[in-house]
Amino acid sequence: MKTAKLSALILAISVTVAAVAAHAQAPQPYGPPISLDQAKKAMAAAEAEARKNNWPVAIVIVDSGGNLVMMQRLDNTQFGSNEVARQKAHTAVAFKRPSKVFQDLIAQGGGNLRLLKVDGLTPLEGAVPIIVNGQVVGAIGVSGVQSQQDAQVAQAGADSLK
Fold first, then answer.
1. How many domains does the chain have?
2. Where is 88: in which H helix or E strand?
3. CATH number of residue 85's parent domain
4. What average pLDDT values come out for the chain (162 residues) when binned by 10 residues?
5. CA–CA separation, 141 vs 7, rounded Å?
């Protein structure tokens, strides 16, 4: 039984790597963890974008190791969005690409549906890696409104550090 689970896990990881490699160019290398000052700047920009649009969202920033650096939930945001935003951010930093990549692959169906079994992968748009000096220093994940809107808020935060 353990051999079957291990084989399934190896297959799922292989499919993930192949699908991601086919979908995007080589990702940026990891860099040092995002600093608190950088995270504050990204958080402020993401929050400003959400407030400008009157979107109640949870915003999470993780470092290059996937560790929580900052989290905030705007007023009237459903509390379930806290964990979804964290999972989206983790996906973006773990795989060094926007979480939308996986949402799009799942939507294609077929063998890509195996991605649903990969632990730590949340295939929902709304998170992007934070790139500083060509290196992934963290990621920002957002949840609370439509996925495209979540992604817009996350991108505003990441763009503030360019």
1. 1
2. helix 80-94
3. 3.30.450.150
4. 53 52 70 98 98 98 98 98 98 98 97 95 98 97 98 98 94
5. 31
